Amino acid sequence: MLYIKCPHCGWRSQNEFSYGGDATVKRPELGKEVSDKEWDDFVYNRKSLRGKHWELWQHLSGCRQWIKVERDTATHEIFKTLKASEEIS
Amino acid sequence: MSLTSPLANIYHKGKFGDYEDKNENDILKITEIKNLLIVQIVQYKNSKISFENIDIDNLKLKDKPLVVVKNNDTRILWNGPKNWLLVSKKKNLLKDILNVFDKTDFAITDISHSRAIIEIEGKDVKEVLKKGCPYNFNILEKNNSINSIYNGISFTLDMLESNPNKFRLFTLRSFGESFYHFITDASLEFGFKSI
Questions:
Q1: Does A15 touch chain B if contact means CB atoms closer than 8 Å?
Q2: ipTM of the complex as predicted
Q3: Taking CB atoms and an 8 Å limit, are A64 and B83 in contact across chains?
C-alpha cells in the first residue's frame, strides 16, 4: 500500500487521496494577452514525465485539502509533500 | 414532522455472531446514536480573525490534527485546517453557536439530520476497524478523531474511551445502512450485542 504524508494530517493511505494533475502548471497572468498556444498549454498539454515530478493531490477522505506531492512516476517513491499554498523550491 | 432514524430499517436489538460461550464483557456492543446536534464550523480562507478566544459551551477551538476538545455534553472534532465538527447532546446549543460566530468569517451548518451514527465498544473494536480502514489504529488514543474511509465509505471516527475501546462513527445518512452492514459483518467473528 502506498502511503502519502499529508502536511495537515500526517501519514495516510493513498486510498484516501485523489490525484489532481501536474502541480507545476502556472495560470497565464491575468489581464495579459494570451495566445492560443499558451492557453492550450495551460489547459490541455501535459508532459508525461518519467522520474521525479510535482503533482497535486487532494486528501479527499481526510482533511479535504489540496497538497503538492513530489513523486517518482516510475518507482512511486514519494520524496516530499507541501501544502498547496507553499512554493516548490 | 416525526424523525426516522437513519438505521431504523436494519437496526435490531439482540446478540449476533460468535457470542455463545463468551462472557458478556468480551463481546462487542453496538448502538445507534440518535438525537445529537452536529454542526460543521468552517472559517473562511480569507478570514483573518483569531478563533482561539471563541467560547462554545466552555470549549475553545483548536486547529490541531486528531485533537478533540470536550466536556460532558459536547465534543469538538478537528476535521481539517480551520474546519471542525461540533457534536453535542445539547440540542439548543445551535443558537449560542450562531451568536458567537460572525457570519462574515465562519460558515456554520447544522448537519444533524444528515449523519448516521454508530457507537461500538469492546476490546476488539480496533480489529473490526482495521478490517476496512487503512489507518494505523495502533497510534490512535483516547479523545482523538480522524476522517478516513471504511470499505470505500468516507467516515469520521471519534475515540471516546480507551479501556475498553469505545468509538463513535459518523457517516453520511445515505451510506448509513451499508456502513452498518460493513461494521456488523466485520464484528460477527467476535460476537456482538446490539443495544
A1: yes
A2: 0.89
A3: yes
